[in-house]
Sequence to fold (350 residues):
Amino acid sequence: MKSQFFQCILFLPYLFAVLLGLAEPVESAVLKVNVDKVSFVAQRRPLINVFISAINRKTGSAVKDLDADNFIIKEDGVTYSNPSEVKYFVVTDRKLIYMVVLETREKLSTSLTLVCQGLKTFVREMGFRYPGAVLTYTGRPIILARPTQDINLLEEKIGALHPVKGSSRLFDGLLFAVNELNKYAESSELKTDRRSLILLTDGLDQGSMFSLAACKAKIMQNNISLFVVGYGRKENQTLQELAQLAEKSGGGFYFAYSPDMISPLLLTVADRLKYQYILTCQPKNITPDGKRHEIRVNIKKSGYTGQGSLAFIAPKIENKKFVCFTAVIVLGATFLVILMLLVKNKIKPN
Fold:
């Protein structure tokens, strides 16, 4: 009996440890919060539209069950006082048009077969709602499929890709894609809210007529979101610059360390394109002053935590009342000077 009693005593610490372990709170999933875009609407009562996507870092999938109360917005470091500051809250899959841009050169830095498999999965995930197109840039930019909602056609064109001889005209292909995307997006039958480029590349460019700087300017000027799935060598300088451009444009950069990562990464891109939150708020401190400002978003919900931010330049709008008042003063002063000259020279007006 004594031996059994001592065994029970020795077992108690282990029992307490187990119970304490069960009592620990469940760890919240850390989110990657992407502030994709901030737009400032200058009017009598200015508004700020904040476009947000949230990715679960553990699963890699988009978080689709948030509401306005889960968002805390900071404007230049100042927190909005309460959730009622959010005037409008929308979970949206706003219409978009996208174009896949890739190369098919021989001796590719990854498996073209797995690239094609990943793109087929991506196209199926995007579905028939969104017009999609495919462009290759090996040798020269070639559009294989113009924007269409026919998923079967897109899969057919992707499935027919094979290695070809030719140089990697990355920058020419990217710039050509921007121009074509703009053309299609502006046509009445394909009018959409968003334009996105999905670029698969190892960063190699051979003899393009245009530069990466030209691509950057064109993408930012036309408000196109760029998503890059990189492969090959992550330290490639062009890949690093494309990663910065992707983040700045409201898109994202993903690196496939192995070919079998391409398909899951493309599914993550599809999630970000399809599921986005829009919060419309009246700014507390930001005015149309032409200066740099920052919007920071914190997400808090049972099981979820994360934050993200985006700096942007507010548009500069002159005070119309001040301009009109100044114009009246200038005209009045001019009239008085003329009148004084007339009186001084004893010239009577007719």
Remarks:
- Residues 96-274 form a domain with the Rossmann fold fold (CATH 3.40.50.410).
